[in-house]
Amino acid sequence: MRLALTALSLALLLPSVATAQANRPAKGKGPKTVELKAADGLQIRGDLYATGNKSGPVILLCHQARSSRGEYRKIAPRLQAAGYTCLALDQRSGAEWEGVANETARRAKAAGKTADYLSARQDIEAGIKWLRGQGYRGKLALWGSSYSASLVLVVGSKSKEVSAVLSFSPGEYFRPKKDFVRSAVGGLAKKPVLIVSPAKERKQAEPIGAAIPSAKLVIDAKILHGSRTLVRSPLAETLWTRDVLPFLKKALR
User: Fold this and answer.
1) Are 222 and 244 contacting, i.e. CB atoms less than 8 angstroms apart?
2) Taking the chain, what is the end-to-end CA distance rounded to the nearest angstrom?
């Protein structure tokens, strides 16, 4: 009877243990703080998670509204451990995330810079330029969360430096520019694109996906808004192993 109870107890504990393992940050070398400049002169702060291989693939990580580069403190180490150099930006449209202040947003406010969603596009473009300027030659993926999930689709469509795009919860966030994103993603037709969205946001994600022939859509009721779904969702480990890592391996090989 004691053995049976022990086995039952272990069985009950396994799901919670698996979830904890999925949400635990992978071991990595830790980020290095870097500084770069946008086209309008604003100084941008970022966290660089380097693998030491400048010819390997790179990922530019962009956060959601009211957030910072801290959004990727539990995501970037896992990508780094899988062989991807990552740069997590503080964009000018953002705030603090889990204790990590958005230094770029603070500077933008102090300098009187425009800091709406669309103005953060130049921060993303500056991130691409900085990575190339630092000698990172491998294929480059853009990764966005919420409003930046839409911005990376737009930037990725225009930039020859971008090989693939991961978009977590995109939408037509740039009012009053109706259908702005859908009309600006034609250049992604031959680039791999992964769109991840909660089921409750299906109506805003599906039209964008339909405008991109190469896009793979992952929509589920257990998915959370933005990149945080890879940390906080009960579906986190499934998304990592079934969708995100296989997509990156194929798109950036």
Assistant:
1) no
2) 53
Global pTM reads 0.89
Provide the 3-class DSSP secondary structure of residue 92. coil
191 class by beta-carbon count within 10 Å (0-12 exposed, 13-18 middle, 19+ buried): buried
DSSP letter assigned to residue 41: S
Domains and CATH numbers, the chain: 28-251 (3.40.50.1820)
Residue range 61-112, pLDDT digits in tens = 999 999 999 999 999 999 999 999 999 999 999 999 999 999 999 999 999 9
C-alpha dihedral, 90 to 96 to 100 to 101, nearest 10°: 70
CB 165 within 8 Å of CB 59 = no
pLDDT in tens, 150-188: 999 999 999 999 999 999 999 999 988 889 999 999 999
